[in-house]
Write a structure and sequence with these properties.
Layout: H1 3-11, E1 12-13, H2 15-22, H3 26-34, E2 41-42, E3 48-51, H4 54-66, H5 71-79, H6 89-120
Antiparallel strand pairs: 1-3, 2-3
Bound molecules: FE2/S2 (inorganic) cluster.
Length: 151
């Protein structure tokens, strides 16, 4: 094997190595790749080879999933990262800023729902018209009563 090929092999990881180092199942790695969150190349033996930075990306995916961020939003965020160089601290901060805003929005929404739950405990009507938990985003109610969309 040529020296250059050996250096590439050292710089890259097999799917098993990625699984071992990241603590993520091989099936999850395949799933992330299928969804376009991570990528690999095929070697001469048609085996996947991942760049080492895939470990950081997988860590980021796991953290984001833990925060309840949907995979599609994670992919959209990763798509904004530079492709031709290693992401800088500033790149990661831009990404985390967007997620922080989303997280704050969700926390505000969940807090409102929690407070509305106090009102609903003991009621149990779950009325589409009256219950804020059953119909929390009833924005159309502000436009009038009845079938607003049919008008
Ligand atoms: S359950 Fe009655 S108002 Fe929510």
């Amino acid at each position: 094997m040529a020296k250059f090929d050996q250096e590439i092999l050292k710089a890259e990881l097999s799917v098993g190595e990625v699984a071992e180092r990241s603590g993520v199942a091989v099936s999850a790695i395949h799933f992330y790749e299928e969804k376009g969150l991570i990528s690999s190349r095929r070697n001469k033996g048609n085996q996947r080879r991942f760049k080492r930075d895939v470990l950081r990306i997988i860590s980021l995916i796991k953290v984001a999933q833990g925060l309840g961020i949907p995979l599609e939003a994670i992919k959209n965020a990763l798509d904004t990262m530079p492709k031709n160089r290693q992401p800088t601290g500033e790149d990661w901060q831009k990404l985390s800023k967007k997620w922080k805003e989303d997280l704050n929005e969700r926390i505000a929404k969940m807090t409102l729902m929690r407070d509305q739950l106090n009102h609903c405990i003991g009621c149990g009507c779950l009325s589409l018209k009256e219950c804020p938990l059953r119909n929390p985003l009833d924005k159309l109610s502000k436009k009038g009563t009845g079938a607003v969309l049919l008008e």
